[in-house]
Amino acid sequence: MNILLLGSGGREHALAWKLAQSRLCDRLYAAPGNPGIAEHAECVTLDPADHAAVVAFCEAQRIGLVVIGPEAPLVDGLADSLRAAAFAVFGPGRAAAQLEGSKGFTKDLCARAGIPTAGYVRVTDETAARAALARFGLPVVIKADGLAAGKGVTVAMTRDEADAAIRDIFSGRFGQEAGLEAVIEEFLEGEEASFFALTDGSTIMPFGSAQDHKRAGDGDTGPNTGGMGAYSPAPVLTALLEGEVIERIIAPTVRAMAGDGTPYSGVLYAGLMLTRDGPKLIEYNCRFGDPECQVLMMRLESDLGEILLACAENRLSASQPPRFSPETALTVVMAAQGYPDAPLKGGRIDGIRAAEAGGARVFHAGTALGIDGVLTASGGRVLGVTARGPSVRAAQASAYAAVDAIAFPQGFCRRDIGWREAAREEAE
Ligand code: AMP
Ligand code: GLY
Asked: Pocket of ligand 2, candidates 212, 228, 297, 331: which has the most ligand atoms within 8 Å of its Cβ, to mutate?
């Protein structure tokens, strides 16, 4: 079977690496891909917003499975257009992708289905937003409703910060011309963890856990980013808690979506807060995390192509659960200096082969390959250096040994990825 993978980040490099190894995969195409993906796939130019062009490509190349990596084409309904043309697609349609595309939609669904989440108010103008603030203490969390590339959330420690966040949202700073909307919600205290589940609309297949590091600097300081590193599994999410997450959060979500006639098909990525009162949902994403996907793929021992096709064809109930290595996988993101505000482009990168010599894998996120064969940085997050080990500390040591084999003078990385869990291991 021929497979088309859409996307160009580190997440898609990890997916391409596993898909290329699938028993089912004849030819793997990636659009647009990147220099790392090009080692496993034929990279092609396709505009994901041009649904007719994507469908035409799938017809011409006799594609048996389309895997949509990023959220934007999912929220834009590309999966619907492909399904209407009878292609098997991994990823939700437009209606189901609202679980990521609209925070208000997800909060209302939680309220309706009794899913534990932070208390909230939806507001559509600045006056209502200010009035709603009175119902919450401090800190308070202000969220722009739509996709904002991870920038639409403010945890406000003061009223002034809350006011500024509200002003930003309703001045259209996050790019929604029509229907400006915000969610104001209660601040949850606890440790964050991510849980992944595949679903075809009815069957739920647990797909591992991870913890991300969202701040740019060591010790969780500095600006928010797309993620500076991750590890999997997340031991804080014990088997007991995982059972609770499936029963109280994932299953009621899947049932509610199916009951509304918009079954969710694809990966449900639940961002969780482990509070004193149990796990609560912070947000859903309708795609794999980046760099969480890299650590999951580094541990996955099953055939990814078979699993994603079974999901796309509503056959998860007849599928074997995925096998994951019990080892820890850990990714350190190497970013371009200036990320996340103004990443420096063009920095030269050497040493990837040396970094991989000890078994680590270097996933490309924002790289470009010149005609001279020189690899350079072309994005904010540039590489995801990923290693495995019998403990977080062992995986961390291997990942940083690989990082240190890479010469990327115009880049930087956090030196403490995995610190929470490493500290817990040490305390044991
Ligand atoms: P989100 O884009 O919804 O994942 O929010 C980004 C980050 O903001 C999360 O990873 C949390 O660290 C934080 N956050 C979001 N909502 C809350 C909340 N209700 N309470 C505490 N922190 C939150
Ligand atoms: N690493 C966070 C995300 O993918 O949303």
From this structure: 212
Q: How far apart are CA 15 and CA 70, in angstroms?
A: 12
Residue nearest to atom 9 of ligand 1 (CA): 282
Both tokens of 413, joined, read 């990385």
Measured CA distances, 373 to 35, 42, 118, 230, 348 (Å) = 11, 18, 50, 30, 11
- Judge if the beta carbon of residue 53 lies within 6 A of ligand 1: no
What are the φ/ψ torsions at residue 296 (nearest 5 degrees)?
-65, -45
The DSSP annotation for 154-191 comes to EEESSHHHHHHHHHHHHTTTTS--SS--EEEEEPP-SE
Instruction: Supply 405's token pair.
Output: 């084999």
Whether ligand 1 lies within 6 angstroms of the CB of 245 is answered as no
Per-residue pLDDT for the chain (428 aa), expressed as one digit of tens each?
999 999 999 999 999 999 999 999 999 999 999 999 999 999 999 999 999 999 999 999 999 999 999 999 999 999 999 999 999 999 999 999 999 999 889 999 999 999 999 999 999 989 989 999 999 989 999 988 877 666 688 899 999 999 999 998 888 776 665 558 888 999 999 999 999 999 999 999 999 999 999 999 999 999 989 999 999 999 999 999 999 999 999 999 999 999 999 999 999 999 999 999 999 999 999 999 999 999 999 999 999 999 999 999 999 999 999 999 999 999 999 999 999 999 999 999 999 999 999 999 999 999 999 999 999 999 999 999 999 999 999 999 999 999 999 999 999 999 999 999 999 998 88
**285 CB less than 6 Å from ligand 2?**
yes
